[in-house]
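User: Please fill in residues for this 391-position structure.
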């Protein structure tokens, strides 16, 4: 039995806990020279890196609390560095992606067991495996826990569509990841999966339409799960009911006024809690400490300057490669990554394996068809056994 590549091992561990991804970053850093050289030659990433430093300094220097500003400004700079590790540090991107899907499915099993058995395992005050409320695995709870599995749901669907090998495994991993998300009852997670899966299915319609009867069966199965799961159907229905988003909408209205007063440089990274009370609506019921939206988080902290640089860089390095050269692998990785950027419309989250997936989108290895390597192996085996490669 062939030993799995290290990228596959790390890929499997990545969705289980962000701590594993941080360890993976340390391991990828051993290729620092190659990554640094590639980074310096990639103008979009280099200019974004420099631009976010300049933007951060300008915003932090004008902030009410410059100390917090100068500390927090590095968050987005480090994010770009994490992207670079994924873009130029991962040796086997396909192995990493496939393993991440399986790791998400494994986490889904763990979350479901904790949920059904109502486990409550702690080491001191540190939660290890908790099935109460909305779940907690190794310190990741509720929306964060759901976000760890979202990419696995969509990735499993994509790989099942395009890859004959491991098709049933990928369907199972996707379903188990979805069950794990249901255990957290994260509305942001369910919206993220719906948006990303819809885009994936739209882009791959010509391929998956031959599986339409099976797809209908899977959808019916998910429908049965939702209908028989206590209160899950109500939670899903509440997504479209404005009264369930009252607090967020109040916060967003205050943020609009904040941005209008501080458009170019924002109020400074990490200064939202300090400044927002001035803009909090009188009728707002809950004291807001975060924008509950990553886009607003960047816009209020770094202003239009930092927002344009950061999301302009994401467009150039993640969206444009898919646009210029569509391929099954690139589509799968893109939609896996999209789960995060859909979820953060409603929550402040950071999932460490997302910048890795973003870095993989532009990798030339993803230009090939998903099954190309499998067909190559079959050809090699056939040649060894005297079987013609074609016909």
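Assistant: Residues filled in for all 391 positions:
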């Amino acid at each position: 039995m062939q030993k799995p590549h290290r990228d596959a091992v790390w890929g499997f561990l990545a969705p289980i806990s962000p701590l594993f991804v941080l360890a993976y970053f340390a391991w990828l850093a051993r290729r620092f020279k190659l990554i640094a050289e590639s980074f310096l030659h990639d103008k979009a990433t280099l200019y974004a890196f420099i631009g976010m430093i300049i933007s951060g300094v300008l915003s932090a220097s004008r902030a009410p609390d410059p100390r917090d500003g100068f500390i927090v400004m590095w968050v987005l700079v480090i994010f770009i560095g994490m992207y670079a590790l994924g873009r130029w540090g991962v040796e086997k991107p396909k192995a990493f992606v496939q393993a991440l899907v399986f790791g998400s499915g494994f986490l889904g099993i763990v979350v479901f067991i904790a949920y059904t058995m109502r486990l409550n395992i702690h080491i001191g005050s540190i939660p290890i495996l908790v099935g109460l409320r909305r779940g907690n695995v190794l310190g990741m709870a509720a929306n964060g826990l759901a976000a760890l599995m979202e990419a696995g749901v969509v990735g499993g669907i994509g790989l099942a569509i395009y890859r004959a090998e491991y098709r049933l495994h990928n369907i199972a991993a996707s379903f188990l990841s979805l069950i794990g998300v249901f255990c957290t009852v994260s509305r942001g997670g369910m919206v993220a999966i719906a948006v990303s899966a819809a885009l994936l299915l739209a882009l791959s319609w010509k391929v998956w339409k031959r599986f339409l009867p099976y797809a209908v069966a899977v959808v019916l199965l998910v429908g049965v799960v939702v209908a028989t799961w206590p209160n899950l159907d109500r939670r899903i229905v509440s997504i479209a009911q404005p009264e369930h988003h009252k607090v967020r909408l109040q916060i967003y209205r205050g943020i609009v006024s904040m941005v209008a007063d501080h458009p170019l440089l924002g109020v400074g990274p990490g200064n939202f809690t300090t400044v927002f009370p001035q803009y909090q609506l009188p009728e707002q019921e809950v004291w807001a400490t975060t924008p509950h939206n990553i886009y607003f988080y960047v816009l209020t902290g770094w202003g239009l300057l930092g927002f344009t640089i950061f999301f302009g860089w994401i467009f150039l390095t993640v969206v444009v490669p898919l646009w210029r050269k569509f391929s099954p692998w690139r589509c799968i990785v893109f939609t896996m990554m999209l789960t995060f950027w859909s979820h953060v419309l409603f929550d402040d989250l950071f999932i460490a394996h997302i910048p890795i997936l973003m870095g993989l989108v532009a990798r030339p290895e993803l230009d090939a068809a998903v099954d190309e390597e499998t067909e190559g192996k079959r050809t090699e085996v056939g040649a060894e056994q005297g079987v013609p490669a074609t016909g």
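For context: The chain has one domain: 6-369.
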